[in-house]
């Protein structure tokens, strides 16, 4: 059973929490969120904030913290075939308490339907905060172009713009 090997990114200034389901094979190998070059997560955030796409792990981490964004995944471990969310079984959720006790999180957003479903199943009772489901930035979500993703993800902006 793969274990989550990426620490959450947040600090005392994080205003929103974005949750994925479980890291892809590439992300687990690189030990960083959305590390697959085909995933559009970093392009979408950079596009929304009119900034260059961060390239290194250090730049990505700084980008998130600078924009008051916390990032983690709903699941700590699961059985998964490759990176396919549809194959996830035997799930163990992450404890979101450390983030919520440290940061003044105003809203929680789920990157895709799988993270949204697992959040509602495991985390909603603990957090007491309804999450907003956003379309997945995964390349498997071919129905959404980067522009269309940006249009949908724009709902995060009121929380993170100063």
How does this model look, in words?
With 162 residues, this protein is an alpha/beta fold. The chain has a single domain, classed as Uracil-DNA Glycosylase, subunit E. Helix content is 35%, strand content 18%. The chain has seven helices and six strands. The protein has helices spanning 25-30, 41-48, 57-66, 97-102, 113-127, 146-153, 157-160; strands at 16-20, 69-73, 75-79, 89-93, 107-111, 131-134. β5, α5 (113-127) and β6 form a beta-alpha-beta unit. α2 (41-48) packs across α6. It is globular, with a radius of gyration of 14 Å. The termini are far apart. The mean pLDDT is 92.
**Span of the ends, CA to CA:** 41 Å
CATH architecture level-2 label: 3-Layer(aba) Sandwich
Q: Helix segment count?
A: 7
SSE string, helices as H and strands as E:
EHHHEEEHEHEHH
What sort of overall outline do the alpha carbons produce when their principal axes are compared?
A: globular
Fraction in beta strands: 15-25%
Low-confidence segments, ≥5 residues, pLDDT <50? none
Question: Could you give a quick summary of the protein structure above?
Answer:
By secondary structure, the protein is an alpha/beta fold.
Layout of secondary structure:
Elements: E1 16-20, H1 25-30, H2 41-48, H3 57-66, E2 69-73, E3 75-79, E4 89-93, H4 97-102, E5 107-111, H5 113-127, E6 131-134, H6 146-153, H7 157-160
Parallel strand pairs: 1-2, 1-5, 5-6
Antiparallel strand pairs: 3-4
Helix pairs in contact: 2-6
Quick tags:
four-stranded parallel β-sheet, alpha/beta, Uracil-DNA Glycosylase, subunit E, 7 helices
């Amino acid at each position: 059973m793969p274990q989550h090997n990426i620490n959450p990114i947040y600090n005392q200034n994080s205003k929103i929490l974005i949750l994925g389901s479980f890291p892809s094979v590439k992300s687990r190998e690189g030990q960083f969120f959305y590390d697959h070059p085909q995933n559009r997560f970093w392009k979408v955030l950079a596009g929304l904030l009119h900034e260059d796409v961060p390239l290194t792990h250090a730049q990505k981490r700084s980008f998130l913290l600078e924009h008051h964004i916390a990032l983690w995944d709903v699941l700590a471990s699961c059985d998964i075939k490759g990176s396919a969310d549809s194959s996830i079984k035997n799930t163990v959720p992450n404890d979101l308490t450390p983030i919520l006790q440290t940061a003044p999180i105003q809203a929680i957003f789920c990157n895709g339907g799988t993270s949204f479903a697992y959040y509602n199943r495991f985390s909603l009772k603990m957090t007491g905060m309804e999450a907003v489901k956003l379309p997945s930035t995964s390349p498997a979500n071919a129905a959404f172009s980067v522009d269309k993703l940006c249009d949908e993800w724009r709902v995060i902006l009121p929380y993170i713009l100063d």
